[in-house]
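Comment thread on ticket #2218

A.B. wrote:
> Attaching the input chain for the structure job we discussed in standup.
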Amino acid sequence: MLINILASLDNYIRNTSFNSELMASAQVWQTFWLHSDVKIDGDPVIQSCIRFNLFELNQSAGRDEFTSIPAKGLTGNGYGGQFFWDTEIFMLPFFVYTEPTIAKKTINVSVSHAANG
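C.D. wrote:
> Ran it. Output below, let me know if you need it in another format.
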């Protein structure tokens, strides 16, 4: 199975270019900021802080059926991949309003982990 994944990835890499990946990434980020940006007038430092937090939430979110938002986000792996229920308390509301698909996957991962002990 891993060989098939690596072969598929190798094939993808050979058939793409940096510019096409850059444009695809730019489109994803443009859509994210269109739906998720919070604007604060009058304080550019606070504005930058808010945007960094939004960026970190987006980068940290799992996008499959197996991963959620890790305990330390982009700041480190000190919890060894553990997930905590406070993810749903503090982070889920953001995704409910901005990325409902990610919100649903986050809940499904938590339910799956709870059901499997």
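A.B. wrote:
> Thanks. Noting for the ticket: The CA atoms of residues 5 and 75 lie 28 Å apart.
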